[in-house]
C-alpha cells in the first residue's frame, strides 16, 4: 500500500512552536522557497513547513544541517547545496521519513483522529543513534570491562543529564546493574552499585540490589546491612522486611 506523506501529522509540535515564535526564524528563508529534489516530502510543501521539518530533524537527532547536506559547517546556509544527494545520512533520513509516515498512517489509523503521532523525536530524543542507556553501557562493558563502562556513564551524564536523551534514574541503572550480574559479570554489578552509592548514599535501588547480590554470594551479614539501609530509606517496602525475616530465620 502506498503511503501518502502528510507532514502535518508528525510536524504538529514543531509547527506550533515556530508559528508562535516568528522572531526565531532564520534570515535565510529563501533557501526553503523552491525545493528541487524532494523524493518523499510533498513537492508543494510550504517553505514554512519545510523549514520546520529540517529544524525538527536537526533537533531530534542532535546533528547539524551539514551532517545531511553538502556544505561547510559555520558558513552561510545559502552557500549549501541542499538538493545534492551525496551524504549517506540524508538517504537514511528519507527512509526514516517513510517509516514514520507508515507508522502514523497505516499502523496507528485505528486510533482515529486523536491518535498520538510518532515523530522523529519519539525515538531519537536528541541522539543520532537512538540507543537506550543500558545498550550504550552494555556495549562499553563488553568492549572494555567495568572501567570503560563507568567512564562511559560519566561522559553521558556530563553531557546529557537533564535532557530526555538518556534515563539516569536509579531504577534503570540498578536494573542494568542486576542484569550484568545475572549475565555473569558480578564485577560490573559491583562497579555500578558503588558508583551509584558514591553519587547518592541514600539510593534505595542500589542498596536493594546490593543486598540481593550479597545474599546470592552467601554474605548474610552484608545482605542484612544493605536491606536494613534500604528499609530505612523506604519503610514502605514490605518485600524487604520479608527478605530480612528470611535471612534472620536462616
Ligand atoms: C537528518 C538529516 C537531515 C538534516 C539534519 C537536515 N536535513 Fe534537510 N533534508 C533532508 C532530507 C532527507 C531532504 C529531502 C527530503 C525528500 O527527499 O523529500 C532534505 C531536504 C532539504 C531541503 C530541500 C532541498 C531541495 O532542493 O530538494 C532544504 C532546503 C533543506 N533540507 C534544508 C535543511 C537545513 C537548513 C537544515 C538544518 C537546519 C537541514 N536541512 C537539516 C535531511 C536532513
Ligand atoms: C520508531 C523509532 C524511530 C523513529 C520514529 C525514527 N527513527 Fe531514525 N532511527 C531509529 C533507529 C533504531 C536507528 C538506528 C539504526 C541503526 O543504526 O541500527 C535510526 C537511525 C536513523 C538515522 C541514521 C543514523 C546514523 O548515524 O546512521 C537517521 C538519519 C535517522 N534515523 C533519521 C530519522 C528521522 C529524520 C526521523 C523522523 C522522520 C526518524 N529517524 C524517526 C529509529 C527511529
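^ C-alpha cells above, recovered residues below v
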Amino acid at each position: 500500500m502506498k503511503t501518502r506523506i502528510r507532514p502535518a501529522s508528525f510536524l504538529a509540535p514543531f509547527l506550533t512552536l515556530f508559528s508562535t515564535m516568528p522572531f526565531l526564524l532564520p534570515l535565510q528563508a529563501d533557501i526553503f522557497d523552491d525545493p528541487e529534489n524532494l523524493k518523499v516530502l510533498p513537492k508543494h510543501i510550504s517553505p514554512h513547513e519545510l523549514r520546520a521539518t529540517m529544524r525538527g530533524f536537526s533537533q531530534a537527532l542532535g546533528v547539524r544541517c551539514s551532517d545531511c547536506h553538502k556544505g561547510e559547517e559555520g558558513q552561510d546556509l545559502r552557500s549549501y547545496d541542499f538538493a545534492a544527494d551525496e551524504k549517506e545520512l540524508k538517504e537514511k533520513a528519507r527512509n526514516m521519513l517513510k517509516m514514520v509516515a507508515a507508522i502514523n498512517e497505516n499502523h496507528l489509523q485505528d486510533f482515529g483522529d486523536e491518535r498520538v503521532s510518532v515523530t522523529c523525536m519519539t525515538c531519537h530524543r536528541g541522539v543520532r543513534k537512538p540507543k537506550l542507556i543500558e545498550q550504550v553501557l552494555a556495549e562499553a562493558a563488553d568492549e572494555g570491562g567495568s572501567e570503560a563502562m563507568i567512564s562511559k556513564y560519566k561522559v553521558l551524564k556530563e553531557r546529557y543529564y537533564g535532557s530526555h536523551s538518556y534515563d539516569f534514574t536509579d531504577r534503570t541503572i540498578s536494573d542494568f546493574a542486576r542484569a550484568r550480574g545475572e549475565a555473569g559479570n558480578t564485577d560490573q554489578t559491583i562497579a555500578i552499585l558503588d558508583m551509584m552509592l558514591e553519587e547518592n548514599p541514600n539510593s534505595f535501588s542500589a542498596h536493594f540490589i546490593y543486598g540481593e547480590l550479597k545474599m546470592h554470594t552467601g554474605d548474610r551479614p552484608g545482605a542484612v546491612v544493605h536491606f536494613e539501609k534500604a528499609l530505612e530509606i523506604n519503610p514502605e517496602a514490605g518485600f524487604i522486611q520479608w527478605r530480612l525475616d528470611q535471612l534472620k530465620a536462616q
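Residues 14-23 have pLDDT under 50 and may be disordered.
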